[in-house]
Design brief:
Length: 400
């Protein structure tokens, strides 16, 4: 059991709200590419209209172009909600503490990117997390903690499991909605559950994949994106290097999955590469190590569309190609269009796919749009998510 914001009396209280407004960023100028997670987060913040709300989120990963300040996010939030939103370029030192203590009822304060504190990128046990500087420096300024970062529920960082270890905690609106939607989808799949995986984050996807199949949550897996390339290498269909850490380990896992479950996976039969600034489609057999794979090809889209049409429920997580570049958006658009017109229950996961659906104008044709990526796939795979566990523990404490 977990508590919701209706279960705690949060009026006139100072509340730490952990959201996930980690947003795709334009690599050229650092601007935000879309607003879906910010829009979603505004719902819980809006409903805490008489509390002093302190918003925390991470953005990007250390060392990457998307590891940026939350100042732009705070401005967007300010435009979306009808109360003043302030930003402080600090997390738990004096500037943040002063700003938190000066908050009045109804005001909202956004803290700086929580990953600017290195502990936020690490995993901790809840007690250990509660002893980090981030939590120790400011938790006493809060009366309660609202966890609404469903998309980060697979991380056990201080802001997810540390504050909630010490404070009365409950879920926000997004967590409740996501959990209900996924449970409904599993019920409606009628044993014909297809998972389409893409994007660039291999680690989370691979670990979830095995459990998804093992516990019979999915019986077809259509691979695209980086994980599709990984499986092409694992099946010796291409000689290629993804140039990522732990590639060898991932390849061993992919080979194991292919051997153990030979009838479950579909792997691209053709792909798109860049040639003289244009899209060029090639059958997989014609690829050489110099080619940079940037999308799936038209034949693969046809095969995948047939499978989508025969499925009871379809989850698509992560884009099949570099859809931000018009030359490589075809695969993403073809599969999303197939999802939009099929009769099965459909769910898409991750902000990138939301942005692509928006461009196609078919957002309303998908049954559930989740802004979560890896966390959602892990939830479906039956994994225990640290954020959900933290909420359950907090509810237990409040009862005893
Ligand atoms: C996501 O976009 O999946 C979440 O914000 C988590 O981000 P992370 O994979 O960098 O932890």
């Amino acid at each position: 059991m977990i508590l919701t914001i209706e279960d705690l009396d949060l009026a006139h209280k100072t509340v730490f709200v952990r959201v996930d407004i980690n947003t795709p960023v334009n690599p050229e100028d650092g601007s935000l590419l879309e607003q879906s997670r910010i829009l979603e987060a505004s719902e819980t913040i809006n409903s805490l209209s008489s509390s002093k709300v302190v918003v925390g989120s991470h953005q990007g990963r250390v060392g990457r172009y998307d590891y940026i300040s939350l100042e732009q996010h705070a401005k967007s939030l300010n435009d979306l909600i009808d109360r003043p939103v302030k930003f402080v370029p600090d997390i738990h030192n004096s500037a943040a503490k002063n700003a938190i203590t000066r908050l009045k009822d109804g005001e909202v304060l956004v803290l700086e990117n929580l990953r600017f504190d290195e502990d936020e990128s690490k995993d901790f046990e809840p007690k250990e997390a509660s002893e980090t500087k981030m939590v120790q420096n400011i938790y006493h300024l809060f009366d309660a903690c609202v966890l609404d970062a469903f998309a980060t529920s697979h991380r056990s960082s201080p802001s997810i499991v540390g504050f909630s270890f010490l404070l009365p905690s409950c879920s926000g609106r997004i967590v409740m909605r996501e959990v209900q939607a996924m449970d409904r989808m599993l019920k409606e799949s009628d044993g014909r559950f297809t998972t389409i995986l893409g994007g660039s984050k291999i680690r989370d996807r691979l670990s979830a994949l095995e459990s998804l199949i093992e516990i019979k949550r999915t019986n077809r897996v259509l691979l695209t994106g980086m994980i599709g390339i990984l499986f092409l290498i694992a099946r010796n269909q291409i000689k290629y290097s993804l140039e990522i850490d732990d590639e060898e380990k991932y390849l061993i896992k992919a080979k194991f999955l292919l051997e153990t479950y030979p009838n479950i996976f579909e792997i691209p039969v053709d792909v798109a590469i860049e040639s003289r600034g244009k899209r060029l489609e090639l059958p997989v057999a014609e690829l050489t190590p110099e080619h940079k794979i940037l999308d799936i090809g038209a034949r693969t889209c046809e095969i995948y569309t047939q499978i989508i049409n025969a499925s009871g429920a379809i989850l698509m997580s992560g884009p099949p190609g570099l859809f931000e570049n018009e030359n490589f958006e075809d695969g993403t658009h073809a599969l999303l269009t197939a999802l939009a017109s099929t009769s099965g229950t459909t769910m898409i996961s991750g902000g990138h796919l939301s942005a692509a659906l928006e461009k196609l104008g078919i957002k309303d044709k998908i049954d559930h749009l989740s802004t979560a990526g890896g966390a959602l796939v892990l939830y479906l795979s039956g994994a225990e998510l640290p954020l959900i566990k933290a909420l359950e523990k907090s509810a237990e404490k409040s009862i005893t």
